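Researcher: I'd like a structural prediction for the single chain below. Treat it as a standalone chain; there are no partners to consider.
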Amino acid sequence: MRAVVCIGECLAVSKDAKTQSLAKEILESLPVRNEAYLGQVHSAFVQILSAQSFQARYYATISLNSIQKQMDKPPDAGIIKPLVNLLECSSVHVQQEVFDLMKLLLSYEKIKKSLLQELLKAMHITGSETDTDAADSNGGGSETNITPMEAALPDNIKQAACAHFIHQILSENSGSSDASVVKILEQGHVAEYLLYAFGNESFANSRKQAARSLRQLLHMRIENVRHVLLETLGEEFVQEIESCNDMDHVSLSVSPLQAMTMRSALLRLEYTGKLL
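Model: Treating it as a single chain, here is the predicted structure.
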C-alpha cells in the first residue's frame, strides 16, 4: 500500500514529464502482476484527479478509462467534480478522454444522477458580469467588477464542453428504451442551463454547443423543454433552432436583450430556490 501511495505522489507532484510518465506506467503495471493492487491503484488515480499538475490529472483520466472497466463496483462520487473540472482544458484529446470516462460512469446507477447534476451546475458561471446583468433584469443583483471573459476562459471552456457532452449523450439515448439519463436531465432543468450557456455573449462555442443540445431536446419531443423554450425565446426562434441542419449557421449572434433573457431563465429558478 505504501508503495502505491509513494508512486502516486510522485506522479501528482513531479514537474518532470518523464518521471510522471514512468510513475503512471509503474502504477498501471502493478495490478497486471498482482490483482490485489487493483483497488489501491484505482484509488490512487482517483486522488490524482485533484492534483495541481494538469499532466498528472490527464494521465489519471487515461488510466482510469482502462482500470475502471476491471472494477466490480462503481467509484465513489468524489471522482465526479475533479473529472468535470478537467473539462476546463481546451484540448480535444483531453476532453474526449474525460467524455469516455464519464460515459463509463453513467453506466453506474449509484453515481449517474450526481454526475449529470454536476455537469449541469458546471454550465452556470457564477460571480460573472453575465450573472449580474441578468440578475438586474429580475430585480436583483450583486456588485462585481468581473467581465465575462475575466470570469474566466477556463469556466467558459468547461461550460461549452459540458453542453457538448450533453448533446452526445442525448444523441446516444434518443432512440433508447432506457430514458433515465434524459429524465434526470429534464428534472435537473437542463433547458434552463442550456439557455444560460446559449446566452453567453463572450464565448461563441458555448452558444453553439448549447444550441445543438437544445435542438436535440426539441427533436426528442420533451414537452417540458419545449414549453420552457417557447416561454423564453418565442415560437419563431424555437422553430429556427429546431429546423436548422447545421448549427454552425444558426443565428448565434443574438441581441444583448435576448441573451439576457436566456440567462434569466436559470437565474429565476435560482432566486426561487428551485435549482439543484
